[in-house]
Design brief:
63 residues; alpha+beta; Alpha-Beta Plaits; two-stranded antiparallel sheet; 2 helices; binds iron/sulfur cluster
Length: 63
């Protein structure tokens, strides 16, 4: 499983990196990006899917 953040949609609420900090991070302005190439460790897939479902801007998609 891989994920990607659409920077044009993210409003920087921070939910994704609060819920799944191994996959998402905040840039210096508080907007999200995926870590590395967006690969989700097997152990964190439930958290990543929760982050996707909670993103108010629907800015995260599963690749
Ligand atoms: S949950 Fe969505 S809107 Fe919030 S920081 Fe993450 S990608 Fe951006």
């Amino acid at each position: 499983m891989k994920v990607a953040v659409d920077a044009t949609k993210c409003d920087g609420y921070g939910t994704c990196f609060d819920v799944c900090p191994s996959v998402f991070r905040s840039d210096e302005w508080g907007y999200a990006s995926s870590i590395g190439d967006g690969t989700v460790p097997d152990a964190d897939q439930d958290k990543a899917r929760r982050a996707i479902s909670l993103c108010a801007e629907q800015a995260i998609r599963e690749l």
